[in-house]
Amino acid sequence: MNEVLLEMKNIRKEFPGVVALDNAGITVRSGEVVALLGENGAGKSTLMKVLTGVYQRDGGSVRYRNQEVAFQNPREAAQKGIVIIHQELNLVPYMTVYENIYMGRELHNKLGHLDTKAMIQGSKELLGWINAEIDPKRPVQGLSIAKQQMVEIAKALALNSDVIVMDEPTDALPDDDVDSLLAIVEELRAQGKGIVYITHRLQEVFQICDRVTVLRDGQLIGERLVKDLDYDELVRMMVGRQLTDLFPYDPSPDTEDVVLKVEGLTNQYVKDISFSVKRGSIVGIAGLAGAGRTELAKTLFGVYPKQSGKVLLNQKQVEIRSPKQAIQSGIFYVSEDRKAEGLILSQDVKTNITLSSLKKIVRFGRVNRKKERKISEEYRKEMNIRTPNLEQLAKNLSGGNQQKIVLSKGLMSEPELLILDEPTRGIDVGAKKEIYNLTNIMKRNGKAILMISSEMPEILGICDEVIVMHEGRIKGRFTHEDVTQEKIMETIMRDGSQPKEGV
Amino acid sequence: MTREKLGRFWNMYRSVIIMVVFAIVVGFANNRFLRFSNIMNILNQTSINAVLAAGLTVVILTGGIDISVGSTLAFSGAIAAYMLERGFSAAIVVVAALLVGLCVGFANGLFIARWNLQPMIVTLAMMSIFRGATYLLTNGSPISVSDKAFKLIGGGKIFSVIPVPIVIMIAIFIVMYYVLGSTPFGRHIYAVGGNEEAAKLSGISITNTKIIAYMISGLMAAIAGIIVTSRLSSAQPLAGQSYEMDAIAAAVIGGTSLKGGQGRILFTIVGALIIGMLNNALNLLDVSTYYQTVVKGVVILAAVLIDAKS
């Protein structure tokens, strides 16, 4: 028992302009549950993608059953006994449970005729092992998330997997179903499987995990036995980081000029949200992925309708029903996903910059190209967009420069309120610092800024106020002076689900 | 460096290069091909497809498709003939036919943009509806047209040399070139097709942009319908059948991406001309029409393949 199944060491993975993993690793033993912990962006998912062959590593070693391995794709990893159960489940809703369990490995006779009976029988057994009461013949559609997860687990068992990676399996589950899932995890452990358990809910770590592996900034911080750890120490391992002078904090002017005031904003994503943003200040919104932060931003921007509550812009109540109206009212939203939502990648720099403010460069219904070029050139200089020329296609630029194009587009629309959603995601440190300097300039120019970020240091470093969101609600508020990473983490975790006593 | 420049030149103008090379080669093979009268003939034959393709290019640029244009052509043509036979003047008839095209396009756009239905399915349904409506209106047999003024649209010649449809085609492409290249609406079309989500978050109304795109396509189909009806001096119940395929082919051969957001209207006319020249050349060379259809398919495949590889 407890032999080492899998050992990942000194893993390095680079993406263009970003080092995602450097010296990361994890060890998995049979009959053990290892918690893989870290903040958003710490590299947990990347490490697992390197393991299962979605990405190829740039350095380090992966030993599985005492052999050096490098899987080319998840299918190969699965054949060798390593499967990953993703947060977003990979089931085909219209097909039956047993068809899903045997997908790609259907049982058949010599003539190629499907052996339905054997597959149904096999599914029954697999589901029986984990005490899941699901009819193999019913379609997946209509099953609860928890039941669908059980089907995924049965699928993993059908492969005879030795290592099962579960990516935030309880995240989408109601509390009642969490316990039955945890029971299944314990059952798998008893069968000698090695389990990697990725979670944000620390109480679950103490409940079922034997060991923790903590990543931070793509590095392995430590591997410890759970019984030797307490809650505070675990949080310190996750967030303990030195703030550097990367963050040029610029105190906001002492003003009572409120640009945005939100009162009791509620819809299907967010509940009872109230806060305000003053002129020349940055309000940060911290929280986990899925806390409803982006949804809040998109509600303010008119993408999602609100059900109740008030939004006041410069003391005047506004009813915003579309992004078009939002921009006309003086709000601009810079998306967290600049490739999918921020840019027209197939078009050039100047076309992207002017897209939201065509009115400014149109005369008698005609786009004035000279004016377009002149204004774009001004933004290129001001924002320091590094591009050979303004005709360069957006897709050919680096992440940092792409982000500066989106910011230029936003500023050209002359907003009162700028909503920045993960403004530095996936861009390198140098460009990050430039973005921070730019936000400070916008601040001095009297913009109000609402900044969503999962990067704690940036929330702490440049925000005048910090709001912590969790499960669609505001759970805490801090000023620049008294906010700490521990306080934010604690605010989120305290409310993760039912706090466990004595931990 | 020069190699790179050459590559860029080829990528940009390859449809034009292919057209010119093709013309020269066929010109050597058959001395009638490059005669002035034959060139006018080709342009005149191509005009219907080119006009339809201009509308389709706009729709395809938004990431959509419109296969109802053939039926719209027939229906607006039939409306025109029907009204002419009841004594309406040519001017009123033309306006009415154009309105019909705009309305069909508006309906397409409403279903597609407002209610988020698949463009292929919506326009497939419209194709069937308006083909049926054309049968109903014409009772299944041609309606002949005798109005002199109306007949000039398809059969007249400016300065007794240039057929009117060629002038209409050129005018349409000049206007479309301007609209797509130099107006905010043109920018919106490209933005919606390039990245719908980003366009929306940039403050562009996706619904309005798409509806107008389908209305342009409907309008072009109506113009083509008027030309066809006038040229044949009658509205045929089967007019324009499968014309949508040639129009899509023209846009694609001209380099417009079916994924949307990429393509240029002036190359669509080149695409239409390549198809027109191909048919004309095969006729001159006495190749059976059965082969022509096969060759057209091969050319479309080649065009898409070249596009995908560069």
UniProtKB/TrEMBL annotation, chain A:
Q: How does it sit in the membrane?
A: Peripheral membrane protein
Task: State its location(s).
Answer: Cell inner membrane; Cell membrane
Output the Gene Ontology terms for molecular function.
ATP binding; ATP hydrolysis activity
SUPFAM superfamilies cross-referenced by the UniProt entry: P-loop containing nucleoside triphosphate hydrolases
Q: Which domain of life is it from?
A: Bacteria
Q: Which PROSITE patterns match?
A: ABC_TRANSPORTER_1, ABC_TRANSPORTER_2
Q: Does the keyword Cell membrane apply?
A: yes
- Name of the protein this chain belongs to: Sugar ABC transporter ATP-binding protein
What organism is the protein native to?
A: Diplocloster agilis
Automatic annotation (TrEMBL), chain B:
Q: Where are the transmembrane segments?
A: 12-30, 50-75, 87-111, 117-137, 158-180, 211-229, 265-284
Q: Where does it sit, as one GO cellular component term?
A: plasma membrane
Cell compartment(s), UniProt:
Cell membrane
Annotated keywords: Cell inner membrane, Cell membrane, Membrane, Transmembrane, Transmembrane helix, Transport
Q: How does it sit in the membrane?
A: Multi-pass membrane protein
Q: Which GO terms describe its molecular function?
A: transmembrane transporter activity
Query: Which positions make up the signal peptide?
Result: none
**Name of the molecule in the record:** Ribose ABC transporter permease
